[in-house]
Amino acid sequence: MKFMFSLCIALGLGAFSWFSPKSTSNQSLEGAWDTGQGVVICTPTYLACTDFSVPNKKFKGSWGGTYTWVKDSLKIKMEFSTYDKASVGKEKVFLAKLKKDLSLKDPATKTELSWKAIPEDGPAALAGLWRITGRMNNGQLSAMPLAARKTIKIFSKTRFQWAAINTQTGDFSGTGGGSYTLKDGKYTENIEFFSRDSTRVGASLGFDALVEGNKWTHMGKSSTGNPVHEIWEKQ
Q: Alpha-carbon distance 15 to 4, whole Å?
């Protein structure tokens, strides 16, 4: 029986290889991509892929990690995967063909898939990979030094995803994401998936935001009503 898995699931299980007859140095995956099953967000060095359904308020799975693309070879070092914990820390090597969209092929099953670029016209101030480095508690700033256990946020110009992960053990604590806006110091998240609580899908959360170079101060209230005052640094 002929069947097709989403690219996210296939990559999480390490099932796919990609083919490309030619790559050029000016090709870039940076931005947001529609996989047909969810969304991929790519920074220049990091990507995150998530399968989800907004109408059904269903989170299906997510994976991500650092990547390089040199001479037709896309190498991904997995930092988290809800599909295959054992893949964390391992490197996956793929080939890709990028024109307007990214065409994908599995040589074993002959399955062909495509990532379609999501048009984006938004601010670039947050685009990239961020890590939380501090949090205010009772008026005191608690530093969060770099460690295997970390919380990151991945941004394109219009899409965001956060993930709480442990790159040493492969443990995955949660993720959420969707679309966002940043204007006049106001940052708004529109939640499209949340692994811990599907009832939050469809909610919008507003925060005060101050972005100064590689430092982002994030203040407001969470969806539970608790105060949020965080410091993030661009990676």
A: 12
Beta strand extents in 82-185 (DSSP E only): 91-94, 97-98, 102-105, 112-117, 128-137, 140-143, 149-155, 159-166, 172-183
* Chain segment 192-219, per-residue pLDDT in tens: 999 999 999 999 999 999 999 999 999 9
Decide: 76 and 84 in contact? Cβ < 8 Å.
no
Using alpha carbons, select from 16, 35, 158, 49 the residue that is nearest to residue 101: 35
Contact 211, 219 (CB under 8 A): no
The superfamily in CATH containing domain 128-234 is Uncharacterised protein PF14869 family, DUF4488 (2.40.128.490)
What would the pLDDT profile of 26-49 be if each residue is shown by its tens digit?
Answer: 568 899 999 999 999 999 999 999
State how far the alpha carbon of 12 is from the alpha carbons of 25, 100, 141, 181, in Å.
27, 25, 36, 29
Residue type, 25: S
Distance, C-alpha 124 to centroid of its chain = 16
Neighbours of 230 (CB within 10 A): 18
* Same fold? 7-117, 128-234: yes
